[in-house]
UniProtKB/TrEMBL annotation:
It comes from Oribacterium parvum ACB1. The lineage of its organism: Bacteria, Bacillati, Bacillota, Clostridia, Lachnospirales. PANTHER family: AMINOTRANSFERASE, PUTATIVE-RELATED (PTHR43799), ASPARTATE AMINOTRANSFERASE (PTHR43799:SF1). GO terms for molecular function: L-aspartate:2-oxoglutarate aminotransferase activity. Pfam families: Asp_aminotransf (PF12897). It comes from the Bacteria. This is Aminotransferase class I/classII domain-containing protein.
Length: 434
């Protein structure tokens, strides 16, 4: 029987549907599943793509960087020249505007907030001496961003995401009117979790913000800049540093990126691009923090990828592995849920996630139900500051890690749980006369 909208079903129809769905759910429970769709990790075969990096710098290799430094020894605070060149091509910035850090861009974001707290931004009052610091958080967003700002006791303000990026009317108004707002989290390309990319207008409006706080910075986390799923159908963004400069706001943005999901998560290289004024400010602190980051890893990356063209080709190999997973999840959603009006989902062209919206008040129960049948999802609420999704409707789907067949089973089960919880919600609504 082809179903129409669940909302249109009678109480009797909903009850008989619930019975059927419960029976199917029990069958899944009997399968003793143990599947994990909770984090955006590359799969094993994606990791294998970069194993050649181990040979790229073996014991026979020349250990000198192009500018004559022995990478095995101390020194070179901002990164070796060829790593700066590669990462600046990746980030679409001038090498002069880049610093290479260690293995994690999240770490650099954390340090940037920490430095602003202890020493202030470019001569402004350190945040620790101010009564209140606030931050704008486009929602749904990345849980680890929100965790950093929560850890520092920063008050987080939700800003709704649209398909074109954060609602800029709200962003403009808030930053212009409140000096205690010091930053905003942005994942401008293939956002986590919706896979949306900011429109030209959004980027232009960001570059033209007029914050009340002189030390307001946009945290532009371009984690998925190279992570397209398709060869020909890709999102392009206006480059934010250049746009800020054009708009007369050169110091407004810190841009972050890393090779975590290009080479190895946790063993990649991270970088930041920003204005020369900001770089000077940041390097003042960095010189006390370290003598230099891991240059061996920097050189290893450059020897392996050679240049940006090598990296682009490498990313297409990643895409060939994960594209079928995204397409499979979307087709299972389509087959099971289309027309029922109990859920909607995004169809990203890149990044690592699909975002799913249940009926209001269902997300937590869906995630619990999946867990009880052996499928682990990102906790409901995780995509919002303080873990609180006001609508309890957003679920982040991370399709990359499990093998395709496991993912298919997990997605089928997910759809079943969405149906079951939606039916129960609708039944409750109808029988209580609400
Ligand atoms: N930013 C975003 C938006 C991410 O999704 C991730 C990884 N899931 C990171 C940063 C983490 O980056 P890194 O490994 O460079 O710390």
């Amino acid at each position: 029987m082809r179903m129409g909208r669940y909302e249109d079903l009678s109480v009797e129809e909903l009850e008989s549907l619930r019975k059927e769905l419960k029976q199917s759910y029990r069958e899944y429970q009997n399968m003793d599943l143990n599947l994990d769709m909770s984090r955006g990790k590359p799969s094993l075969d994606q990791l294998d793509l970069s194993n050649g990096m181990m040979d790229a710098l073996n014991s026979e290799a020349d250990m000198y960087s192009s500018d004559g430094f022995d990478v095995r020894n101390y020194g070179v605070l901002g990164g070796i020249a060829e790593a700066k060149e590669l990462l600046s091509d990746m980030m679409e910035n001038n090498p002069d505007n880049i610093i290479i850090f260690g293995n994690s861009s999240l770490n650099v974001m954390y340090d940037s907030i920490s430095r602003s707290y202890s020493h202030g931004v470019m001569g402004n009052t350190p945040w620790c001496k101010l009564d209140k610091i606030k931050w704008l958080c486009p929602v749904p967003g990345y849980d680890r961003h929100f965790a950093i700002t929560e850890y520092f006791g920063i008050e987080m303000i939700n800003v709704p995401m649209t398909e074109k990026g954060p609602d800029m009317d709200i962003v403009e108004e808030l930053v212009a009117s409140d000096e205690s707002i010091k930053g905003i989290w942005c994942v401008p390309k293939y956002s986590n979790p919706q896979g949306y990319s900011y429109s030209d207008e959004t980027v232009r409006r960001f570059a033209r913000l007029k914050p009340a706080a002189k030390d307001f910075r946009i945290y532009w986390d371009n984690a998925y800049g190279m992570h397209h799923l398709y060869d020909h159908d890709q999102d392009y963004l206006i480059e934010i540093l250049a746009e800020c400069k054009r708009a007369g706001n050169p110091d407004l943005v810190y841009k972050f990126a890393s090779t975590s999901k290009i080479s190895f998560p946790g063993s990649g290289i991270a970088s930041m691009a920003t204005s020369l004024n900001n770089l000077e400010d940041i390097k003042k602190q960095m010189q006390y923090q370290t003598i230099g980051h891991d240059k061996v890893n920097q050189l290893r990356h450059v020897r392996f990828f050679e240049d940006i063209h090598g990296m682009v080709k490498h990313m297409m190999k990643h895409a060939d592995i994960i594209r079928p997973k995204f397409e499979m999840v979307e087709s299972v959603f389509e087959k099971n849920l289309n027309g029922l009006d109990i859920g909607s989902w995004t169809n990203p062209k890149g990044g690592y996630f699909i975002s799913f919206e249940t009926l209001p008040g269902c997300a937590k129960e869906v995630v619990d139900k999946c867990k009880k049948a052996g499928v682990k999802l990102t906790s409901a609420g995780a995509t919002f500051p303080y873990g609180k999704d006001p609508e309890d409707s957003n679920i982040r789907i991370a399709p990359t890690y499990p093998p395709l067949e496991d993912l298919r089973i997990a997605t089928e089960l997910f759809c079943l749980c969405v149906k079951l919880i939606s039916v129960e919600k609708l039944l409750k609504k109808k029988t209580s006369g609400l």
